[in-house]
């Protein structure tokens, strides 16, 4: 057996694990940690004939690691070494090393947290920070703390930089292995890629084949780009060059051919997703071409939807990819970006950006719905957890307190997303278990239709392609068939061959918040239960439907694009979601009508299923009327001179500092914001603006005052002053710092003291007027006015107003509001 770099640290690793329950191992790709560490641990005394569980993030890597270790031991798979991946188990009674994918560990822990018969859990490639790895580690640490202090936990990573494992394992020893990486010459583009990356990749592949030896490993973001590059290369490469496509959903034989050594005299070009970044050693690769892109899931908690987005890789990921060229000999890496292009230092942990519904269900099943008692490296985002728990409650998996229900436990037993598990179980209750399993398998996989047929968004076309093969991608169809059979076996059912008329029903059960109703007859715009708008592609036959079940969307803003949907009838909506349909009176203010409108509506979330006119209740009507008044503003109220005077007097007194405390605030702004308190009792029977004139606004404003406050208002800020002439003159308080008395000059003859208010504390501003009520002078000192200003005004007044008395000595004259003739009469 050839020596590998990891071999030199195996004695230290075994010695450390004798006494340390947890250990961190850092070893770069190619060091041999995946296939050398588990067999070495079999000799440990503390193992006591128990098993090792080795977690791999991908099915291909899990199977490959198990097969490689079995070959090295000279045994068939399923003997000492076995594996468990989705849809396939190869373990036997003698199996000591079980290689599993991460979700399987979670289910093992949920079924029996004590993990009887298991001595150690190894987390491989932890730097990838998958959500299953984060959850699995948190649960394993919880078990180690409370149930199994003897359980060993070994976390292996290509690098610990940016992984922050110390947050969860502060006391775990760290062992580092030096890798064996040959020098790799790295080349960048001079200018950024202009156009699709596929063209740049194809051109660089041709160049690399002509200028380098060995096989090529080309990293592309997804299957679509892989297929396009393969199509571009068709007919352009020499006959001895074989092009392979490698991605997670490719068939086992196709994957084996891609990673196996090239036949003699042949060269390989392997077009791969990120599946080949780590874990897999591909013999013969001397050249890496890196697009610098990856396709990752991103969850939008606002819409409650997950979509795949293409993002630049991190520097750490780019270095991992480059290292693939130097595993066995010096190599070359061509990067399809400029050297100046910035990259994030590390990939984002999946737990921060993924749909957390499966995680939230696992936490509830664990008995810690909030996950507060678990040691997560990164806490799940609150908004994502809240959205996940809301969905699980909608599906009936959680109760009102966040605890798991019996239905939730049933969902957790199925190895699919809770949405699909709910659909399968409800489908079984409806007598459609086979169809539900078929549909779950279809929804789990990428699109079954061949690339040219995918513009059709109708789910029926996928179901038809699955059952007839017409228009189907054969490899995808076979994977869907196997998964549908596996799910059917789990629920004790047979495959579904009929019932296509119920596709919409089942899809709606999986995505209840995406049940949609057409907005108007002339468009292809729908509104979903969640409130989000949905836009169908132009020309889609589904645009004729009134109701749709929507399964796949993408986009931001008020409308999302629909990529998968099925017909739905009103009758199905009414029956399938009867428990969620609400019937209520909706009373609201309609600005266009300036009136309160009431209607009886039946709703499913944001969808209105039916409506009819009704009468507003008193409380609802008043609340809606208040909303209308808030929109129209204070001018909509029936103000009179008297009510405005009351408001202005009170406000002057409040702001002058003379008011007893506390004092009510009658400003327009406060009156509006508090209208529900003081105005609502006076709105009985008032439903529109024209009826506001019925309000007794004087009584409504008076309701702000206690009796002593009302008396204080009249005493300190009177509305009128009675003059010696007998006239009762209104004081002006609006918009002035000091109240104003506007009065004809003659009515103040003989008065030397300027009028005061505020218990004598405030001298009013006197606006002296002519008999025609035109302004003559402004004063706050009548004595000074009579002595200095009046003598100069008297000749003008006598000339202009000869019918009025203008005595030479105003201080001895009698105040009057009459002309000379009226006085003589």
Notes on the protein architecture:
This protein has 26 helices and 31 strands. The protein is an alpha/beta fold. It starts with 9 loop residues before the first helix and ends with a helix. The protein folds into seven domains: 5-176, Rossmann fold, CATH 3.40.50; 184-350, Rossmann fold (3-Layer(aba) Sandwich); 357-504, Four Helix Bundle (Hemerythrin (Met), subunit A) (Up-down Bundle); 508-577, OB fold (Dihydrolipoamide Acetyltransferase, E2P), CATH 2.40.50; 582-627, no CATH class; 634-716, no CATH class; 720-824, no CATH class. β25 and β26 (728-732) form a beta hairpin. α10 crosses α11 and α14 packs across α16. Strands 4-3-5-2-6-7-1-8 form an eight-stranded mixed beta sheet, sandwiched between helices. It has a six-stranded parallel beta sheet with strand order 9-16-13-10-12-11, sandwiched between helices. The protein has a five-stranded mixed barrel with strand order 17-18-19-21-20. The longest helix is centred in the C-terminal third of the chain and has 19 residues, at 782-800. It is elongated and about 140 Å long.
* CATH fold topology of the largest domain: Rossmann fold
Quickly count the helices.
26
Q: Into how many domains do the coordinates divide?
A: 7
Radius of gyration from the alpha-carbon trace, in angstroms: 41 Å
Question: For the largest beta sheet, what order do the strands appear in spatially?
Answer: 4-3-5-2-6-7-1-8
Strand content: 15-25%
CATH class of the largest domain: Alpha Beta
Topology:
Layout: H1 10-19, E1 22-26, H2 33-41, E2 51-56, H3 59-73, E3 81-85, E4 88-90, E5 97-101, H4 102-111, E6 118-123, H5 131-146, E7 152-157, E8 174-176, E9 184-189, H6 197-211, E10 215-219, H7 223-233, E11 241-246, H8 252-259, E12 267-272, E13 285-290, E14 293-300, E15 305-312, H9 315-323, E16 331-338, H10 357-366, H11 382-394, H12 406-413, H13 418-429, H14 433-444, H15 459-468, H16 474-490, H17 503-510, E17 515-518, E18 525-528, E19 533-535, E20 547-554, E21 559-568, H18 570-576, E22 582-590, E23 595-604, E24 607-613, H19 618-632, H20 641-656, H21 668-673, H22 675-678, H23 697-702, H24 707-716, E25 720-722, E26 728-732, E27 740-744, E28 756-757, E29 762-763, E30 765-769, E31 775-779, H25 782-800, H26 820-824
Parallel strand pairs: 1-7, 1-8, 2-5, 2-6, 3-5, 6-7, 9-16, 10-12, 10-13, 11-12, 13-16, 19-21, 27-30
Antiparallel strand pairs: 3-4, 14-15, 17-18, 17-20, 18-19, 20-21, 22-23, 23-24, 25-26, 26-27, 28-29, 30-31
Helix pairs in contact: 2-3, 4-5, 6-7, 10-11, 12-13, 13-14, 13-17, 14-16
């Amino acid at each position: 057996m050839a020596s590998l770099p990891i071999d030199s640290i195996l004695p230290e690793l075994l010695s450390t694990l004798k006494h340390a329950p947890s250990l961190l191992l850092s070893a770069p790709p190619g060091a041999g940690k995946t296939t050398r560490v588990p067999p070495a641990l079999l000799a440990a005394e503390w193992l006591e004939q128990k098993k090792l569980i080795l977690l791999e993030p991908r099915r291909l890597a899990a199977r490959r690691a198990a097969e490689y270790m079995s070959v090295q031991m000279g045994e068939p798979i399923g003997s000492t070494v076995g594996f468990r991946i989705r849809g396939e188990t190869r373990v036997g009674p003698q199996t000591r090393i079980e290689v599993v994918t991460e979700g399987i560990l979670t289910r093992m822990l949920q079924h029996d947290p004590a993990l009887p018969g298991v001595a150690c859990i190894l987390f491989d490639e932890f730097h990838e920070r998958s959500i299953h790895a984060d959850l699995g580690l948190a649960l394993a640490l919880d078990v180690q703390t409370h149930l199994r202090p003897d359980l060993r936990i070994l976390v292996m990573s290509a690098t610990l930089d940016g992984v922050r494992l110390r947050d969860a394992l502060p006391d775990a020893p760290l062992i580092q292995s030096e890798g064996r990486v040959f020098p790799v010459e790295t080349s960048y583009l001079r200018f950024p890629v202009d156009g699709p990356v596929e063209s740049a990749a194809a051109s660089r592949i041709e160049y690399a084949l002509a200028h380098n030896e060995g096989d090529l490993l080309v990293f592309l973001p997804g299957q679509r780009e892989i297929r396009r590059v393969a199509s571009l290369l068709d007919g352009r490469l020499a006959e001895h060059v074989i092009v392979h496509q490698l991605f997670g959903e490719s068939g086992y034989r196709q994957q084996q051919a891609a990673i196996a050594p090239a036949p003699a005299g042949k060269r390989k070009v392997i077009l791969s997703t990120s599946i080949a970044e780590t874990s897999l050693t591909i013999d013969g690769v001397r050249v890496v071409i890196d697009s610098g892109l990856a396709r990752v899931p991103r969850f939008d908690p606002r819409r409650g939807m997950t979509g795949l987005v293409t993002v630049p890789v991190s520097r750490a990921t780019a270095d991992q990819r480059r290292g693939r060229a130097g595993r066995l000999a010096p190599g070359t890496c061509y990067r399809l970006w400029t050297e100046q292009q910035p990259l994030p230092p590390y990939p984002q942990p999946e737990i921060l950006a993924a749909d957390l519904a499966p995680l939230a269900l696992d936490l509830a099943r664990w008995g810690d719905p909030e996950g507060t008692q678990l040691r997560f490296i990164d806490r799940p985002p609150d908004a994502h957890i809240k959205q996940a728990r809301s969905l699980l409650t909608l599906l009936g998996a959680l109760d009102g307190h966040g605890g798991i229900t019996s239905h939730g436990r049933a969902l957790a037993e199925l190895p699919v997303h809770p949405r699909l598990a709910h659909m399968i179980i409800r489908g079984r209750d409806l007598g459609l278990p086979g169809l539900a399993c078929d549909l779950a398998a279809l929804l789990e996989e990428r699109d079954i239709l061949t690339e040219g047929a995918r513009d059709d968004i109708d789910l029926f076309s996928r179901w038809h392609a699955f059952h007839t093969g017409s228009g189907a991608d054969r490899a995808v169809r076979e994977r869907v068939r196997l998964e549908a059979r596996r799910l059917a076996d789990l629920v004790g059912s047979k495959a579904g061959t009929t019932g296509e008329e119920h596709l919409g029903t089942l899809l709606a059960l999986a995505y209840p918040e995406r049940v949609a109703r057409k907005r108007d007859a002339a468009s292809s715009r729908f509104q979903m239960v969640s409130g989000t708008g949905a836009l169908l592609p132009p020309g889609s036959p589904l645009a004729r439907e009134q109701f749709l079940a929507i399964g796949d969307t993408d986009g931001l803003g008020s409308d999302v694009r629909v990529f998968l949907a099925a017909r739905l009838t009103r009758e199905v909506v009414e029956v399938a979601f009867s428990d969620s349909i609400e019937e209520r009176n909706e009373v609201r203010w309609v600005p266009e009508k300036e009136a309160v409108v009431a209607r009886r509506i039946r709703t499913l979330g944001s969808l209105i299923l039916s409506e009819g006119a009704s009468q507003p209740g008193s409380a609802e009507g008043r609340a809606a009327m208040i909303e209308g008044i808030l929109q129209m503003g204070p001018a909509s109220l029936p103000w009179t001179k008297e009510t405005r005077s009351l408001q202005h007097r009170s406000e002057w007194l409040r702001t002058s500092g003379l008011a007893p405390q506390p004092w009510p605030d009658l400003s327009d702004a406060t009156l509006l914001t508090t209208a529900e308190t003081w105005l609502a009792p006076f709105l009985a029977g008032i439903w529109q603006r024209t009826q506001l004139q019925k309000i007794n606004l004087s009584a409504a404003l008076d309701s702000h005052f206690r009796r002593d406050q009302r008396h204080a208002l009249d005493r300190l800020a009177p509305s009128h002053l009675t003059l010696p002439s007998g006239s009762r003159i209104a004081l002006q308080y609006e918009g002035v710092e000091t109240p104003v008395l506007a009065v004809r000059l003659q009515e103040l003859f003989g008065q030397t003291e300027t009028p005061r208010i505020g218990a004598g504390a405030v001298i009013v501003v006197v606006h002296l007027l002519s008999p025609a009520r035109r302004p003559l002078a402004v004063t706050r000192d009548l004595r000074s006015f009579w002595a200095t200003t009046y003598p100069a005004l008297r000749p003008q007044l006598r000339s202009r107003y000869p019918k009025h008395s203008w005595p030479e000595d105003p201080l001895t004259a009698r105040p009057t509001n009459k002309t000379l003739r009226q006085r003589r009469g």
